[in-house]
Prior knowledge:
By secondary structure, chain A is mainly α. Chain A contains ten helices and no strands.
Amino acid sequence: MTATAAKTERDEDLVMAISGGDRQALARLYDRYAPLLLGVGQRILANRREAEDLVHDVFLEAWRQAADYDPRRGSVRTWLLMRLRSRALDRRKSAAARLVSNEVPIEEDREAVAEDPSLAPDRAGVRRALMQLPKEQRTVLELAYFEGLSSSEIAQRLDAPIGTVKSRVAAALAKLRADLHPGGA
Amino acid sequence: MRWHATHGAQHVDKSLADYALGGLAAEERAEVEAHLGACPRCVTKLAATVDAFALLAENVAEVEPAPRLRSRLLDTIALEPLPIRSAS
């Protein structure tokens, strides 16, 4: 495998190859996404060892269930992230049940991300769009995504009407899409 | 409020964000899934919603995994049976 070939290979093709039993394709998907998944896993769980176990499980699941991937329902990146997120939140919930007072702090890693010179331009653009969201919109997205709270739970947490929470989530998602895909649907 | 042209079912825009993140109770989730099965428009909207949520991950610093994590995964996969292809 050449570096060029690896770069031009589309995620969807890798998943297709995996569903046909290509172990090398899984290794390449891992190389592409493991750092992202490990970062997000650590953000949700605040524990590196547990996040590593999760990343392992997510790729094992991807191996077993590659044939279930449906591109109409989102990108491969999203497919992997959603699996990781849901498993991470399950772990977090069972850990919280064991230790009721355990509050996982939200990591303040944004500055570190901003200063990373290796950031790809599109990634920097996404980050900029996120930071341009009104704070109350970004907050509801983060509570939903990283803490797994439903709209009604966010409404309780923020002491705001559920309709307001749903509108903020919808407005934030629409703004992100508009900023990142101007002229798009 | 718009209605589905052929099935008379209401579009589920307002539930898509919670659905995408697994935040719906079983009953409402089943309703959304039933609608998605019959409405390509809402499936497209769902895909846009989950992809937009996934952008939040871009704000998180990547963490380089230790090489042993990769070997552990590949060792596990080597012992796994080949994935089962869905009927095509």
